[in-house]
Each structure stands twice: as structure tokens, then as C-alpha cells.
Input
Amino acid sequence: MRLLIRRTGLTRPHGVQARRSTWIRLLSTEILHAELLPDRQSPHYVQESTSLSSLVWDKPLENVLIVKKPWDHNVRESLIQMASHIQRRYPRVNILVEEHVADEVQKQIGAAGVTAIHTGPGEVLRNKTDLLVTLGGDGTILHATSMFASGEVPPVLSFSLGTLGFLLPFDFKDFKTAFDMVYSSQASVVNRARLACQKMSIRKEITHLPSQSHIEHNSTHVYGNPDDYNLSPLTYAMNDINIHRGAEPHLTKLDIHVDGEFITRAIADGVTIATPTGSTAYSLSSGGSIVHPRVACILLTPICPRSLSFRPLIFPATSKICITASSESRGRGAELSVDGIAKGLVRPSDKILVESETGHNSGIWCVAKTDRDWVSGLNGLLGFNSSFGKGGEASGDVA
Output
């Protein structure tokens, strides 16, 4: 990609139109490096009397990262429309996009009067973004938040332009009103918890694997000897963390400890550990409960377990979960994914450590329409308790 593409000047038309005393402006857009922008600022959040909080900027919003569903014509047109409005109505606000999006829109966005957009590598965008705007479906939100999977996420304003919109309270037709509410510190937000995940990989030079029975019966040694493991960087999940057998023909054997206590050995296709937000995703498809986003908890749901008595579990949000791939597992091991992004293999005796994210501004602050957004999504999108009869009305007829 060529950055710093300059806006062209004026040119005199040729032919018949040359007799007219008019000028035609050939429009183009400067694509600038996001490194030129001021560093990100974080708003603060004030608890309202309802279940929501207020988003308040300490100084005017400056940098807005717009993340779109890829290579979709309607979404591309929506991005151009929104960028044009923001630059015209809020001239001091800078528009940021991913590098591949800058390539996608640069030929069209100039015609809409957008004079400049900023882009750069993911690390640069993370350090500059004040507000995260998504145009697409729930998958677009997961992609956008995964860009901040190693740190704090900016507030998220999402518009429904995708297949499924359980996390998307706003229709795109309302983007001007919604953005103005955020810009003027009049928006309400709901906090969605994230899970922190870390992998402990057995060192290759270890010639003996840690004793599984020792781990099972001695909770003080759940994590084993730290010198025997390599510790991965922390990564965060908005939806879920999945440990799955993948292409392996054999069931996985996963030893599950919670707060140092041995719970069970899961012999299954795998397990999913989910947030309340993720309770309506893979966990739900695996038979897990639907949980309201304000309930502080962690869901642990088996995926196709061999035992019919292995039921989904819900733990307090303060719980610390350790899942160890049993040394008795057959094959290469299980596959680890965080919010659908592959994170490599979990080999026999590797451990996955999971707990709720903590710290200042932990979780993800999502701009909300009302405090009934979750109920509307439950009924309207999931068709909760709908009958199989004509019209699909909810069950509950009184005899």
C-alpha cells in the first residue's frame, strides 16, 4: 500500500466543456500513516440508576477506528457514507481503517468528499484508537475486539450489517444519531466481561511428563513445576475459549481443576469455556445455559462428552480454571482457539489457565440502545421459546 497519497489539484476540462468557465475537481484521498495521530485516550464510565453506565470523554474524541465486514459492497458503501458524515460534521475527528480496508475503499472514498483516512499495522491502530466502530455482524465485532486481545479495548459502537446481530443494538440508518450521542458523552454502555487465557507448554527438553495422578490428588501442585513449562502471553476472549480434538480421530482427555480442586476428567470432543456474552454462541450449541451479560460467571460446557452425566457447569467469575491435556491422550493433542482464532496445539501435559479479566476498565464497554437490548436479541434473533406452530409465537398457552 502506498501511504501519503496526495489529493489532486484542479484541472481545466477539454472538448466542448472547455468553453465553459468551470473547473472540475478530481477527487482523491490521502491515505496517511496512523503513527501521525495522537495516542489513544480512554473515557471514564459513570454508573447510571439503571443497569447501564454513561460513557464520558475527558477531552474531545479524536481517533475512530472503523472495522467492516470484508469485501461486502453494501458494507463498503456504508463505511464511505459514515466516514464522509464524520469528516464533514466533526472535522477534528480522524478516521482509521485496517490496511486491507484502505486498499479496498481508496478509489471510491474520495468521491464522497473524504480528504484523508489513516491506517497502519495492528499495533499502531491499537495505540491510537479512542472509539471502535464495527459495521457487519457479530463476527465483525469478534474480529474487531480480537485486534485488542492483548490489552484494553476501546468502547465499541456496533451497527447491524451482517448475518447475525445479537450483539448489535443499532441499525445503520441510525448511525448519525448514535455517533453524535457517543461524541457528546450522552451514550449509555454495558460492560461485557472477557476471559484471560494463558497456555503453559511443557518444555521439549523435559524427558519425563508430570505425574497426572499427583496433579489430581494434590491441589497445591495443579500447575506443576513452573520450570518445566513455557508460559505464553496473555490473550483475552469476548466469547469463548475452546479446546477441541479438531481433526484427531480420538476423543480428548482433559483434566479440569477449578480453584485448585480437581473436578473431573473430560473424555469428549473437547470443552468450551465461555463468558456470559459467549453463552449464546458455541456453548449454547453444545447444550450450555443462556446467561445474561450482567451475571458475573464463567461457563464450562463439555462438547459431545462420552458420559451422559457430564452436564454444563457455571462457576463464579472469581474462579481460576486449569485444564490439562492428559498424558494418556492419544494423538498429537487438542486444538486451542480463542474467539474462533486458532492458537495452536495443546499437547499432552500442556495446561490452559483461564480466569476473568481484572483491572482498570476490564471487559468491553459496548454502546447500548436501551437496557432491554439483551431481551430483544433473545426473543427476536434466537426465537427463544418459539413454538413450531404457525407464526412461531412463544409457548405458554394457559389451559
Remarks:
- Residues 5-26, 207-220 have pLDDT under 50 and may be disordered.
- Residues 195-356 form a domain with the Tumour Suppressor Smad4 fold (CATH 2.60.200.30).
